[in-house]
From TrEMBL:
One of its GO terms (molecular function) is UDP-glucose 4-epimerase activity. The lineage of its organism: Eukaryota, Viridiplantae, Streptophyta, Embryophyta, Tracheophyta. One of its GO terms (cellular component) is cytosol. InterPro entries: Epimerase_deHydtase, NAD(P)-bd_dom_sf. This is NAD-dependent epimerase/dehydratase domain-containing protein. One of its GO terms (biological process) is monosaccharide metabolic process.
Amino acid sequence: MARLVALQQNQLSFSPLASSLSDFSGTRLPTQLQLKRKLWQPKGSFYVSASSTKKILIMGGTRFIGVFLSRLLVKEGHQVTLFTRGKTPVTQQLPGESDSDYADFSSKILHLKGDRKDFEFVKSSLSAEGFEVVYDINGREADEVEPILDALPNLEQFIYCSSAGVYLKSDLLPHAETDAVDPKSRHKGKLETESLLQSKDVNWTSIRPVYIYGPLNYNPVEEWFFHRLKAGRPIPIPSSGIQITQLGHVKDLARAFVQVLGNDKASKEVFNISGEKYVTFDGLAKACAKAGGFPEPELVHYNPKDFDFGKKKSFPFRDQHFFASIEKAKRLVGWEPEFDLVGGLADSYNLDFGRGTFRKEADFSTDDIILGKKLVSV
C-alpha cells in the first residue's frame, strides 16, 4: 500500500522562492500601488464553501495553479493529497501568506510520491486510497489518465485542466465551447483526454483556460513585460500591436476549479475560464506598466517575417487574435472573475516580480536584434 505523508509543522520545507522573499521584504513599492492595496491583497470571496468534505487527489499541485487550488480545498476542510515525483518541495509559502497560515496548510496537506507514467504504481496506490475526487492539473496525454480511472471505479468526479489552445484557428471569435477543435494542435493530448473522459462512465468536468497569469507564473506572460519595464527598455510588439488576446488570473482559475466541484451543472461539461475583458498586445504592455507603477512604455512594432530568431521566442504570445467566451461558466455554475486586468497584474507584480522574484532572468537578445534593425532602417 502506498504511504501517504503528512507534512507536519516541524518538517516544513521551503523552496528557494519562499526563502528568498524575505530578502526583498524591505523593497519599497510604488506609492500609487500602496494606495491600491485592495487590488492585490487576497480577496474574501477567494474562499468558496463546499457542501461536504471530500477525499481529494491532485495530480501535480506544487506549481502555480495547483498551489492556489490546494489552498482553497484545504481551507474548505477537504482531505487533499498531492501526487508528485517528489523532486520539488511539496509545499511552499505563498507570497504574502502569513507564517501561521502556511504552517496550518502544510500540516494538513498529504503527499503521494510517484511517477504518473508508472501506470501499475498509479493503479495500485490510488485504488488502495480510494479517492472520491481527482483534479488532474498536469495531465497531457490520455494514456496518463486511463490508469487513474481504472483504479477508482467509484470516483465521484474527475476535474481536468485542459486548454483553450485546443480550438481550431478561426476568424469567428470569441471561441465558444462548441467551436471546432484542432486535432493537430500542440494540445492534442488534452483533446484526446477529453474524448477519453466522454467515452467512460465517469462524471467529469474539463476546464479550458486561455493565458494564465499571477504570482508564481512559470510561463513568462507578464514577467516578459516587467523585465523590460524595469530595465527602461522599449517593448518590441509584433505586427500592428492590435492583436486581441485574453488573460485570466490564477486565483480566479482556482476558484473556478472549486466551483465545479460537486456541481451537477458542471457534470460532463467543458468550460472556458479567463478574464472578463480582452486586450490588445499594445494595451497589455501599457497595463503592465500601470500595474507596476512604471511610465508608459515606448512600443516598437516589427514584422516577425523580417527576422530569424532561431529557437528563441521574441514575444510570449501567439501572433494572432486568441480569446474565448466565459459566458457558459458564468451562466451554468455562477463563476465570475474577480480580478480586472490591471488589478490582477498589480497582484502579480506586488506579490512576485516587485519583490525581486521571477522564474527566468531577463534575456533581451531578440529585442536587440529587432531594435538594431529598426535603427539601421531609420
